[in-house]
TrEMBL record:
Keywords annotated in UniProt: Cell membrane, Membrane, NAD, Quinone, Transmembrane, Transmembrane helix
Membrane topology: Multi-pass membrane protein
Superkingdom: Bacteria
Cited SUPFAM superfamilies: Multidrug resistance efflux transporter EmrE (SSF103481)
The species this protein was found in: Solitalea longa
Annotated catalysed reactions: a quinone + NADH + 5 H(+)(in) = a quinol + NAD(+) + 4 H(+)(out)
Annotated protein name in UniProt: NADH-quinone oxidoreductase subunit J
Chain's role: NDH-1 shuttles electrons from NADH, via FMN and iron-sulfur (Fe-S) centers, to quinones in the respiratory chain. Couples the redox reaction to proton translocation (for every two electrons transferred, four hydrogen ions are translocated across the cytoplasmic membrane), and thus conserves the redox energy in a proton gradient.
Molecular function GO terms recorded: NADH dehydrogenase (ubiquinone) activity; quinone binding
Entry-linked PANTHER family: NADH-UBIQUINONE OXIDOREDUCTASE CHAIN 6
Length: 165
């Protein structure tokens, strides 16, 4: 059951990512990208990496997609105002895509399926284990980064505020 669900999500992810590239409407392209992110989150959860799955939903499907939609709607893209691509640029794109496909195919053929790693630990990838490692072994770097982020936020607010007299 889990393996068939994994393959189904992989098929949907590949199909929706192809639709991202081939969609004529940029809004539809962003919606297909959101579907791709959700299927990848399903893959992460099946691989027992719940934290990465939740971060994928929050960061990518949430914040980044809202930003993409905002920019697309702000730009008001029209086919008439878009510069036309020359035949040379189309040819270069086809050659580059073909080279990428050849490299991907060679990389997949060079992998050895008998050299797979089987993880015996069931709770690997859980948020509880990540929190324990983060707050026990890496507490000092975590706190230093939090102070750095706090000072960056204060600096951004101070730079962005208007001078009032």
């Amino acid at each position: 059951m889990t393996q068939s669900l994994f393959y189904f999500l992989a098929f949907v992810a590949i199909f929706s990512s192809l639709l991202v590239v081939t969609a004529k409407n940029p809004i539809h392209s962003v919606l297909y990208l959101i579907l791709t992110f959700f299927t990848l989150t399903g893959e992460y959860i099946l691989l027992n990496a719940q934290f990465i799955g939740i971060v994928n939903i929050i960061v990518y499907a949430g914040a980044i997609m809202v930003l993409f939609l905002f920019v697309i709607m702000l730009l008001n893209l029209n086919v008439e105002s878009e510069p036309q691509k020359t035949n040379l640029m189309k040819f270069i794109g086809i050659i580059t895509g073909g080279i990428g496909l050849v490299v991907l195919t060679a990389a997949l053929k060079s992998t050895d399926p008998s050299n797979t790693v089987v993880i015996q630990e069931v709770d690997m990838g859980l948020v509880k284990n990540l929190g324990q490692v983060l707050f026990k072994e890496f507490l000092l770097p975590f706190e230093i980064v939090s102070i750095l982020f706090l000072s960056a936020m204060v600096g951004a607010v101070l730079l962005a505020r208007k001078e009032t007299k």
